[in-house]
Design goal:
Elements: E1 4-7, E2 13-17, H1 19-27, E3 36-38, E4 46-47, H2 48-51, H3 72-75, H4 84-109, H5 116-141, H6 162-171, H7 177-182, H8 185-200, H9 204-226, H10 228-236
Antiparallel strand pairs: 1-2, 1-3, 3-4
Helix pairs in contact: 4-5, 4-9, 6-9, 8-9
C-alpha cells in the first residue's frame, strides 16, 4: 500500500495517506481541488485527476447569470397611473350612495321631517357627477383628453399625508379635524357648529346632519387610506381653500 503525499493549492503539504483515505477525502469533498499528489518512486508531482481514475476534475463554476433587463414600460421612467377621472367617479358615486343610505335610515326614524329631501337631492347630484367623471375617463382613455402634469404646490412646504387625513376623518370627524388638516377650515367650522348644535338642541333635523357627517367622513377616510395617489393629487398638487371638499 503506497503512501501518498498531497500539496494543496495554497502550498501546504499533508500526508502520508493511503489511496483509500484519499478517495474518502475526495468523496467527502475534503480534498482541495487542483491538489498535487506524490508517492515514493515518482519523479515528480502529479495532478490527482491524472494519478487516480476515481478523481475527476471539478467542473468550472457556471458564469453568473446576467439579470434580464427591466420591462420597457418600467425602464423608460414611465409609471402606470390611475386616471383621476375614474377616481373622482368612484368617490362621487360612493358619497352619493352614502347620502341615500342616510336618507333611508332617517326616513324610518323621523318620518315627519322633510329635511331628507336635501339628502336625496345632494346624493342624486353626486351620482350624476360620478357618471360624468366616468364619461371623462372614457374620453381620456380614448386619447381625446390628456391631463397635463401638475407640480405639487407644497414642494417647499408641508406635505399632507393621506394616512393622517384618513385616520382623522374616521376617528375625529365630529370636530372636522380632517378638514382643518387639509386646509378646508370652512368645512371644519361647519362640522363643529353642527355637532355643538346637535348636543345643545337635539332635534331630528340636526340628527340627520350629524349622521350625514359621520357617513361622509367615514367614506372619505377609507377612500383616502385606499387611494393615496388621489389624495396627493387633490390636496398636495392644488392649493387649499376654505370650502374645498
Amino acid at each position: 500500500m503506497n503512501d501518498y503525499h498531497i500539496t494543496c493549492p495554497d502550498g501546504t503539504q499533508e500526508g502520508p495517506f493511503s489511496e483509500e483515505e484519499l478517495k474518502k477525502l475526495y468523496q467527502d469533498r475534503k480534498l482541495p481541488p487542483n491538489s498535487l499528489v506524490w508517492t515514493p518512486g515518482w519523479a515528480t508531482w502529479k495532478a490527482c485527476e491524472d494519478a487516480f481514475s476515481w478523481c475527476a476534475a471539478l467542473p468550472s463554476p457556471p458564469p453568473t447569470a446576467t439579470p434580464p433587463p427591466l420591462p420597457i414600460a418600467l425602464n423608460n421612467g414611465q409609471e402606470r397611473k390611475t386616471s383621476p377621472f375614474l377616481q373622482d367617479a368612484w368617490l362621487h358615486m360612493a358619497i352619493g350612495a352614502g347620502l341615500i343610505v342616510v336618507f333611508v335610515i332617517c326616513i324610518n326614524l323621523w318620518p315627519q321631517v322633510r329635511f331628507w329631501r336635501f339628502l336625496i337631492l345632494i346624493g342624486a347630484i353626486l351620482i350624476f357627477k360620478g357618471f360624468g367623471s366616468f364619461r371623462k375617463h372614457s374620453r381620456a382613455k380614448g386619447g381625446e383628453t390628456q391631463a397635463a402634469p401638475v407640480r405639487s404646490v407644497h414642494a417647499h412646504g408641508r406635505h399632507k399625508s393621506s394616512i393622517i387625513a384618513g385616520l382623522l376623518a374616521i376617528f375625529l370627524w365630529p370636530v372636522g379635524a380632517h378638514k382643518f388638516y387639509n386646509g378646508s377650515w370652512g368645512w371644519g367650522i361647519i362640522y363643529i357648529v353642527i355637532i355643538v348644535a346637535a348636543f345643545i338642541n337635539p332635534n331630528p333635523a340636526l340628527g340627520i346632519l350629524w349622521i350625514s357627517e359621520f357617513i361622509l367622513a367615514l367614506i372619505q377616510g377609507i377612500w383616502w387610506l385606499a387611494n393615496p395617489v388621489y389624495y396627493h393629487r387633490k390636496y398636495n398638487e392644488t392649493s387649499p381653500f376654505p370650502m374645498k371638499w
